[in-house]
Give the backbone structure.
Amino acid sequence: MNVCILEDAKKDIIELQKCLENYAQRNQFQLQIDVFYNANNLSEILNRNYDLIFLDIYLNEDNGIEVAKKIREYQDVAIVFLTSSKDFALEAFQVQALHYILKPIDEAQIEEVFQRYSAYPHKAKEFIKVKVGHSDISIPVDDILYIEKDLKAALIHTNQECIRSYSTLEMLYEQLNHSLFTRPQRSFIVNYGYIKEIKTNIIILKNKVEISMSRKIRSEIKNGYYEYKFKKVRSDGNAN
């Protein structure tokens, strides 16, 4: 689980980290915690796939509520406000904060945060990091239709555009959930959610693109696709 702490008080950071690490140890899961002391690196924060952001309302140079509004323009990540005052409870509600906890932070509050997180209806969108030019960008996984190899590059076809990346297909496929994506041949990665039909040796996407399948893994791909459809029907009652 990836957690971001955006807080300018070192004492509060240490206490929060301790509570988080203790909770993770008790519940036997791995936690990656990144700390930022101000919102100057907000673009970097947005480019990382955080599951949970702890955000101080009273930052030195920034208003935490305004920072949360900027985050909300791009992501539905779970946000927990840290504060020594109840004055901003209404504003926190308006940006759909997961929780609003008062300092000093204790383990009971962190326990409640994770209880709420487990029932959170809008988990953060999943992103993959891709190399474009001299920088890395994040792309929402749900937006990816398919990815194809193009010489030494990868063409990532999304709902909005085609992005040329110098990440390898192997690097990209490692970041993706293999129950949602398949690799019908060495040069392609396909999102099960955008498949319209699978014929004997061809995948037809909803945008009418046709991609051939390797003979060796046809049955594996078909089984994966039917499993995806089955799970989708069970979760939302709709296979499309």
